[in-house]
Amino acid sequence: MIKRSNNYCVIMAGGIGSRFWPLSTHKFPKQFQDILGTGRTMIQQTYGRISSIIPDENIFVITNKEYTELCRAQLPNVPEYNIVGEPMIKNTAACNLYMIYKIALQNPSANIIVLPADHLILNEARFLEKAELGFALAASHEYLITLGISPSRPDTGYGYIQYLPSGDSGYYKVKTFTEKPSVELAKSFIESGDFLWNAGIFLWNVKVILTSYQKYLPEMVQQFSSCEFNNGKEKNCIELIYPKLTKVSIDHAILEKADNVYVIPADLGWSDLGTWTSVYENADKNEDNNAINSRNILTYNSGNNIICVKNKNKAAIIDGMEDYIVVDTDKALLICPRENDQLIKKYINDLKKLKKGNKFL
Amino acid sequence: MIKRSNNYCVIMAGGIGSRFWPLSTHKFPKQFQDILGTGRTMIQQTYGRISSIIPDENIFVITNKEYTELCRAQLPNVPEYNIVGEPMIKNTAACNLYMIYKIALQNPSANIIVLPADHLILNEARFLEKAELGFALAASHEYLITLGISPSRPDTGYGYIQYLPSGDSGYYKVKTFTEKPSVELAKSFIESGDFLWNAGIFLWNVKVILTSYQKYLPEMVQQFSSCEFNNGKEKNCIELIYPKLTKVSIDHAILEKADNVYVIPADLGWSDLGTWTSVYENADKNEDNNAINSRNILTYNSGNNIICVKNKNKAAIIDGMEDYIVVDTDKALLICPRENDQLIKKYINDLKKLKKGNKFL
Known about the structure:
The structure is a homodimer of 361-residue chains. By secondary structure, chain A is of the alpha/beta class. Chain A is built from eleven helices and 17 strands.
């Protein structure tokens, strides 16, 4: 008799990735794109990484119902019924509880690792080692476990985890969570040395996390417990309860409040690839420090640019550009200074004003 | 009985317009594009201008055989058999002699105005007035007549016509032709006041121009006179003689040598739209001096650019660009400083080296 693994994975793939416009669009967001030109999309990389320690039948994907077909096409080895579509966007508390109910019903002793679909991890061996440590802790302790990244700069876009440094067990009790601090605060975090970035990677036993939901989100638990799961009645019930669910992140609703949260510091070569600048930092660059995704792009007197032409049969001539983002798709062209990559949401809003129902967003 | 007009027009439409890449391509060159966004292509504008004084059956188009279908589609009122395809590129002496043979056979008293298909003329009334004067001169004198444009700058890309200023008849005997002078020479031309730009617009009676061909290109005349025209034998014979014809411009072979050349100074608001810079100068510009071809282009901190996105449903965000050319088509993207518009042929050559048989040129 084959022992069924207690270890499960939930890949969260519901984001719309607007900061990566125009490559990432509402119809085809970042996690389904090969942002770095590696030959695999972000979600395929995420699946590939975890599939060496989790069997396919224990890998679940939670996404918006718009993207279930994309997920199935990109992850053909994941069982179709493990790819679940939410009827609407409700942040991470809801989607995680949904997955907890489905997995707990299959295996009441399940331990789950939660992974964002669209993050970069360069150090795969280290990741797997820390994931195994997290699974061992989750199976043996009533801990909610996160992986924490040693911060390399006072980034104000990330969440920070303060931990209590004691011993060298490889995991530490979490003291505080701070989401998107001011730059002054972020600098003091870095200096203090006991802060890590929250990478949104979590590990827990289904019983332990469900207890936390009952404590901190009892109404949400009540709504989900009105449904049956893993049968034909699930979908209708989910559509019924979803509009009523609170839009809140699992970080804010549970992890910031719970007193059984532990962090495993993990030097993963991690990036959330949240902006074109972070893509630039992680991409291969040519002798002029241009990150270029196609051999049909020629540059002249140009350096430190990120140049992405989605159609690799299309030619591009880039002359006299320094520190720019140039992204071309069939629907849109973006040319802006790299330092303006935070303005992309503004650009999109301005385009939305041009006409209703336009196709390029 | 309706008197048939003796006045004919030949529109020369064989250029490949590589300086307008990527909008202009070998398959779809400049004369068939609406470069300035006026709603009509360059050849349609040229036809529209002359058709108010020449009946459609007297309008001929000479182009490369690759483009005859494009001409027919864009000029549905011109009789199909008046749109003639050359089997290969042979410069303007050959194509004009071809047209002279065809038209002289129809009407031995024909007067012809020769027009490049891809030039801009803003002052249409002035153009028609000067064309009428040219036709009258061509019908009554043994003159080869050109229209000359008052030069506005010492442009080294144009040909210059020096004339003998005497009287105020509105036309003058030509003294010299100078093709593409040095900048010093061009400056001295402008200062002297008796030089005009050669706009490539010619008027002549078929008998007079044929006499000049017999004098200056007797071999070419011999080759053409071996063919029959305006019947089923024409095409085969043309294909037979074309490979043997000299590649030479009519300016160089005849006009620079003949002593019966006259020029009509004509302030036409003329441009050969030979470069993106000349398009920029002639295009409508917005409050930031950007020439933009589509309402789905948004600019930020950007001025003095020419921005052309061929697909008008495509969005474009242009941030932080000053004095640039941005041209986007489905096959290629060009971003370069406006002052580098003369490098486009170099860019194309560099792209050609990337791979043989590429589709973006």
